[in-house]
Amino acid sequence: MLPYSNSSLPLEVSEFILNCFVTSPIWQFWLSLPLSLLFVLAMGANTIFLITIQLESSLHEPMYYLLSLLSLLDVVLCLTVIPKVLAIFWFDLRPITFSVCFQMFIMNIFLPMESCTFLVMAYDRYVAICRPLHYASIITEQFVVKSVVFILIRNMFLSSPIPILSAQLHFCGQNIIENYVCANLSVSKLSCDSVDLNRIFQLTMAWTLLGSDLILIFLSYTFILRAVLRLKAKEAVVKALSTCGSHFILILFFSTILLVLVFTHVAKNKVSPDIPILLNVLHHVIPAALNPIVYGVRTQEIKQGILKLLKTCG
Fold first, then answer.
1. Which residues contact 291 (CB under 8 A, 6 or more apart)?
2. Domains of the chain listed by start with CATH number
3. GO cellular component terms (predicted)?
4. Edge-to-edge strand list for the sheet holding 15-18
5. Which candidate, 288, 293, 295, 290, places its Cα nearest to that of 81?
6. Which of 52, 53, 90, 275 has the fewest CB neighbours in a 10 Å radius?
7. How does strand 176-177 pair with strand 15-18?
């Protein structure tokens, strides 16, 4: 498959061409199979997860509300990205209009929102392990509401300038986006204008939001581990580690794949351009598929709720 040519573009660009995996077209077929299965798994697992928490009154607690928020964010990120990728793989639908291309706002805002949700969940586990007697008075439904408001306002306020800055740019030449979605930096570098401000602002916000979240999450689990190791009862240690284990596994996966993505972007001249694109695609679907499964398997209350729901439906 040959890349699209832009030789007949008008002066002002009205649509873009998503040109991912053109150097390795055989990848498209083989990737579409596991990707479509992961997408169906992510949608199905998160839907069952959300319905279970909604219907099971015993799960109407702050921790499970936070898990519901995480599932909703996973669903939005999946629906924003994966259908378009599969449309490219199966039907070669690479063109995307200028207005639709600003779906990147959703990506820019929901990815740090997921990171911030992990941070709130880490704090929830910190209070549960390190201050168990005060847990019921600190982690309340009001706390969850305030946390959701904080997550929304923080990320909307800090992320909204990114698409606003991009909307001010003029596109009058190249229209081929070397990516699978309209990522801000991939689009803005096609502009006829200077994009230094866009680049600096996005990188600063990315490190500020995601970096600060990861540092605070690491500190929370450091305090948790220290408190757990002080417990004398072996059963209490096992229970505490089990409670935090599923959270930490998913947070570790979330942060690890982000770091790998950053390093491959920095070393883009030494790796195939398809590698960062592939990692980005997987980062939008694998956590979404893993999150409800890991929590469903490792959390007894959720497991029982899901089995009850499946028996009712059966």
1. 46, 70, 71, 74, 250
2. 15-313 (1.20.1070.10)
3. plasma membrane
4. 95-97, 15-18, 176-177
5. 288
6. 90
7. parallel
